[in-house]
Amino acid sequence: MKQKALWINQIKGLCICLVVIYHSVITFYPHLIGLQHPLSGLLAKCWVYFNLYLAPFRMPVFFFISGYLIRRYIDEVDWRTSLDKRIWSIVWVLALWGVLQWQALTHLNAWLAPERELATASNAAYADSLSGFVRGMLTASTSLWYLYALVVYFTLCKLLSRWKLPVLGLLALASIAINFLPLPWWGMNSVVRNMIYYSLGAWYGAALMTWMKSVNLRRIWLATGAFAAVSVVLWFANVPLLLSLLSIVLIMKLFYSLEQRYAVNPNNLLNVIGSNTIAIYTTHRILIEAFSLFLIGEMNAASWPVWAELTLVLVYPFASLLICTLAGLGVRKISTALFGDVFFSPPSTLTLSPSTR
């Protein structure tokens, strides 16, 4: 990996860690109804609110970086090559892991929580029929909606690249409007909300990167502070767009500055995680489902000592992150060593031949 790309990879690593923590929190803490100690309940609420406050810092920069990294395919690469590299390769992973998650979560719930009533129509992974699963995947009602979004975003950005500014304006309006006029599908709402960041990276990422590297935030601290204050007020009014844009700049500036000041090792933990985001993203949801189903039953039964309950409530997201990260890295290594990485890239027999690229 080129040295200049390490800080970008570290941001990807941070983002996938935040995604794992997000899913760890929402599948566990809201369902704890039998905690023994009042402090356990307080800690659970703290995690829920902390998770909420992290929202503007989680996906926007992830999508901006994703758009920035594929800008060459938007401007220079033909559709045939793009179809293979940027669309089909992602569709393969989305379809394969969509099926694997569906089967895994269905069987985990039947085993660990057979009495649980699943919202079969709201998530493809909980579908009770093949048609329900397909419908959920087509409407992005899946925890894999990020992959769905990448396909949609790339296709639209390449098709609409001649009209960048007006399209960006429409995407900004859509990102705001979706918070007040949501679609029936939660995943599609996220797809609409975040396209502005991907498009910004794909169309104007190079210019924004140059500006970010050269700007001295200390010299414009007053303007930055004022923008941040307005952004926070709007965020509380359910308009997170400005705060998300500010978070993109601040996160990139932080990681870029750290790389300029300190030598970054390619084997740095965040770099390794950032190089395997898809593996961690696709595998973690299955593990988290198993953890939450088992531990929710244990916690609500009040069968653990109070000290153990407090410890679990305090550290669960970090423990889940550690296990999911190691598991994702392990699955990727096994996939590469034994199966030609078929779990994360389509088999060569199903891709375009080299002569057509």
TrEMBL record:
One of its GO terms (cellular component) is plasma membrane. It holds the Pfam family Acyl_transf_3. GO terms for molecular function: O-acetyltransferase activity. One of its GO terms (biological process) is enterobacterial common antigen biosynthetic process. It is found in: Cell membrane. It is a multi-pass membrane protein. Keywords: Acyltransferase, Cell membrane, Membrane, Transferase, Transmembrane, Transmembrane helix. InterPro entries: Acyl_transf_3_dom. Belongs to the acyltransferase 3 family. This is Acyltransferase family protein.
